[in-house]
């Protein structure tokens, strides 16, 4: 175990996993932005863009899946706190250079803990939904680069990935 300055917050003194007590933390505006992508054949991307995939509107369904996943993150990640989500947005952008789809998700709340896991879960599920709906066209699709791009709020302050990712809105 390699603790940070304050120790690992999900580890009890006896070494067991625990949910962090956030009761004494101040409420603040929180935002997290996650990004990722799915690479696929040009033919699969073309079918998605033209909205002719047999299962239906791939990007529309992926947007709904993202929102549902963000709202259910605490049910999926064992030590996550259930949070009131005040705003969610998702951008699914076709990119012929991949070829594939890029995803960017933003989650906002006002509370005692951040929404990074909700953003990351939403990005992952949006991309998994694209895979599910288009797998008949291309089973070799690859999900990649799902990561936290930025976060705002909290005791530890703001964070922005240092790879040229644009600032969060």
Q: Could you provide a short overview of the structure?
A:
With 169 residues, the protein is an alpha+beta fold. It contains four helices and five strands. The chain has helices at 42-49, 58-71, 73-76, 116-134, and strands at residues 28-39, 87-95, 100-111, 142-152, 159-160.
Helix proportion range? 25-40%
Radius of gyration: 18 Å
Question: Order of helices and strands, N to C?
Answer: EHHHEEHEE
Class of secondary structure makeup: alpha+beta
Q: Separation of termini? A: 35 Å
Got a strand count? 5
Which strands sit side by side, in order, in the main sheet? 2-3-1-4-5
Strand content: 25-35%
Describe this structure in words.
- This protein is of the alpha+beta class and about 170 residues long.
- The protein contains four helices and five strands, in the order βαααββαββ.
- The chain has a five-stranded antiparallel β-sheet.
- Strand 4 and strand 5 form a beta hairpin.
- It is elongated and about 55 Å long.
- Residues about 1-5 have low confidence and may be disordered.
Keywords:
single chain; alpha+beta; 169 residues; 5 strands; 27% helix; 4 helices; elongated; disordered N terminus; five-stranded antiparallel sheet
How do the helices and strands line up, and which of them pair or pack?
Elements: E1 28-39, H1 42-49, H2 58-71, H3 73-76, E2 87-95, E3 100-111, H4 116-134, E4 142-152, E5 159-160
Antiparallel strand pairs: 1-3, 1-4, 2-3, 4-5
Helix pairs in contact: 2-4
